[in-house]
Amino acid sequence: MGIFSWRQGSLATKLTLAMTSVVIVAVGSVTWLSLRRQQLSFRQELQQQAAIWVEALDLATSDVLNPLDSQAIAKIADRLGEDGLLVSGRIYRQDGRAIADIYENQLLLSDPQVDPFGEKLIDSDQVVYEWYADRLIAGKAVLADGQPIGAVSIGLSTEPLQLKMVTVRNQGLLVAAIAASVGAAIAVLLGRSIIGPLQEITAATEEFAEGDLTRHITVNSRDELGVLANSFNRMAEELRDLIESMAQRAEALHQSEAKNIALLNAIPDLMFEFSHDGTFVDFKGGRGDTILRPAGELLRKTVSDVLPAQLAKLYLKYVERTLQTREIQVFEYEWFINNKRRHFEARFVVSGENEVLAIVRDVTEGKLAQFELEQAKEAAEAANHAKSVFLANMSHELRTPLNAILGYSDLLREEVEDLGYEDLLPDLQKIRQAGLHLLSIISDVLDISKLEAGQMTLYLENFDIATLIAEVRTTVEPLVQKKNNTLSIHLARDLDSMYADRTKVKQILLNLLSNAANFTEKGSIVVNVRQDSPPNPAEANPGETLLFFSVSDTGIGMTLEQQEHIFEAFTQADNSTTRKYGGTGLGLAISQRFCELMGGEIIVESEANVGSTFTMRLPKMVVAEGGNGE
């Protein structure tokens, strides 16, 4: 009954009771904490008084206990008992037995009393406290030269403490009663300020639910109730506007429906709607021939009645799958119509509780175009392969007469030098340089042809890295000095040897250094070689150790767009670069392919008009495809 009454009570009553209860609980908690704090404070104060008494008694008895002076002890006990400030007081000898009591008329030297508290004091080097209902007992050991010679204890009454606690408790209860009364009054006033607006909002809501959309709430406050009232007024206004606009939208929807129907009819695809058992529910023919009978003859028939058996089975399969997964299903199929093979793409999607919408498109022309594209691709790949084979064969055919020309140019130069026709030497040197340049181009073409034809072979061997770098430096030094550049090489101390194709590694480095020297003028070229070992070199596979060969220059640099194409065959940064600096654009493409064959790569970092850095990363131990080095 109590629960029912509470539920049926007004909001004002509930709010008043709730706030009053909160205030009482809060004030009661604060009062209890205050009483607890005062009690601890009073107890500490009484302990401090007891400690002072014990320290004084310790000083007074330290000289009479060693040696034991019975008369002096008796005087001390009498003085302690004269004022009546202590409720107890004892002096103990070295074994913890009491030998004097402030309220005993004689000493207990002959038959000292056994006192557990005295024994406890002898074993402690601190002041010991024991609380009882009516007193506080405190004591400590008396020391001489660091050794206990006895102990003393006193007892203070707790009656003053209890009187103080009663006073504090009464004050706290009075404050709590006053605070609870004030809280209840505030709760009543606050409840009235809240309940009035709430009642108005409730009445407005009921009228609004009955259909009166013109109701307006007036709440003259800026709190949450004011916000709620303003929100209600805005909602009512927006709802009125919405209802007014719905009629306009209905008319616009009716007008757009005709447009949608026209747009749907313009779509060239066939559209079917099936029930779960494959029965035609709706149908829209595509543009041109519909390859099916008129719509009126399809409705209420199944796919088995209209389509060939295998095709009908396929349709039913995807109808079931679409309804089960609730996801779009896409599939293709062929259908021989009028002795011609036609290709169709069907998309099935759920359109109702147990219905599926199918959109079928004739993709015959697209399939034929795709087939022709694949044939053209295969023909292009075959032509490209034939080109690579042709270039490889032609490169061999060109190198033989070119080597003969170079040989004869060397013989002519020696003959001219012997005969003294030194004015002919520059022309012979030009012939030789042109032949060497042409031989380099043919070698690059041969390499790129082998790479494209998949005929490039790795010849792996162990070789010393420092020796290889020295050979490269000797070869490229004249080219570096030709444009007044400086070359510096830095080798890490832990470098030793690597297992790779020495010729290809050397060719890559020569390509990178030649490019740096060619595109740099009055600048600097820096070569850095280092290795990056795994965290545990002793346990790691040698193939996991990586070598980094970086070539940096202060040349013309490249933009980001130019960097995207530099590793493509027959490509340089741009046409102006080709005209000014020459080259075929094969060097970097071949170098990158060589690195990839050996399980590495070349990375470029460059900035226009600042310089470039090419970094070749290779494993220290290269493993060729097939598991062996050759």
TrEMBL record:
GO cellular component terms, semicolon-separated: plasma membrane
Localization per record: Membrane
Keyword check for Transferase: yes
HAMP domain: residues covered: 192-244
GO molecular function list: ATP binding; histidine phosphotransfer kinase activity; phosphorelay sensor kinase activity
Transmembrane segments: 15-35, 172-191
Species this chain originates from: Oxynema aestuarii AP17
Keyword annotations: ATP-binding, Cell cycle, Coiled coil, Kinase, Membrane, Nucleotide-binding, Phosphoprotein, Transferase, Transmembrane, Transmembrane helix, Two-component regulatory system
Recorded coiled-coil stretches: 229-256
Keyword hit for Transmembrane: yes
Catalytic activity: ATP + protein L-histidine = ADP + protein N-phospho-L-histidine
Family label: In the N-terminal section; belongs to the phytochrome family.
Record's protein name: Circadian input-output histidine kinase CikA
